[in-house]
Recover the amino acids of this structure.
């Protein structure tokens, strides 16, 4: 999972205080975010000011090229074809048939999360879609074993974008970070210059609020 930001130093200050992350150089101008010494995310500078300020969740795959072909065959698209990231692995950026963007990661020296499901780390990704049946077919066909196979631990769900959402909200994948106390975390977000997009609500997987950081990147906070 990585954030594309206009100001990585400002991102380090925001997330360092919010989640207790520390940082070290990763690849190029990007930095690893670590919690208790384990990698939990990365922050990267936007290469083009026209790019959105966003968090992107990546699915692990043993074959980014092959999965990219399957995505296109299933009606999705490759936003960025697979490319090497030094000796760390191979990355790609894809979109589902409705345009929701997600990443792919074929591990080399970097295998992904060192810590998750704990406060201050990734806990859930939620797809917001206007076509739930189509999403079931698309993601189920690509990632069936990971999402539904024996021993799979749920990390991913989907919700329908209904009339309660703004009409202009596009389908998207929303990254969730676990927090020990949601109200305290919301106070910290606002104190650090972020804002609350959606106040706390209670889906089946916990108590959630949607926020933006001090540069406009959206993410969710989840208390279980």
């Amino acid at each position: 999972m990585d954030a594309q930001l206009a100001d990585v130093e400002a991102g380090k200050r925001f997330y360092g205080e919010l989640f207790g992350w520390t940082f070290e150089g990763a690849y190029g101008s990007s930095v690893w975010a670590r919690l208790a010494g384990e990698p939990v995310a990365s922050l990267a500078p936007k290469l083009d000011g026209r790019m959105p300020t966003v968090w992107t969740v990546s699915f692990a795959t043993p074959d980014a090229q092959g999965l990219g072909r399957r995505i296109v065959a299933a009606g999705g698209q490759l936003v960025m074809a697979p490319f090497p990231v030094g000796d760390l692995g191979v990355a790609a950026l894809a979109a589902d048939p409705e345009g929701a963007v997600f990443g792919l990661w074929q591990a080399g020296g970097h295998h992904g999360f060192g810590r998750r499901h704990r406060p201050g780390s990734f806990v859930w990704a939620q797809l917001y879609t206007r076509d739930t049946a189509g999403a079931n077919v698309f993601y189920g066909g690509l990632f069936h074993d990971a999402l539904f196979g024996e021993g799979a631990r749920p990390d991913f769900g989907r919700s329908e974008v209904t009339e309660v959402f703004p009409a202009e909200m596009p389908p998207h994948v929303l990254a969730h970070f676990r927090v020990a106390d949601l109200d305290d975390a919301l106070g910290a977000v606002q104190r650090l210059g972020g804002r609350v997009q959606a106040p706390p609500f209670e889906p089946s997987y916990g108590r959630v609020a949607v926020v933006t950081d001090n540069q406009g990147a959206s993410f969710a906070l989840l208390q279980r």
In short: The first strand starts at residue 2 and ends at 5. The CA atoms of residues 14 and 35 lie 14 Å apart. The mean pLDDT is 92. The chain has one domain: 2-223.
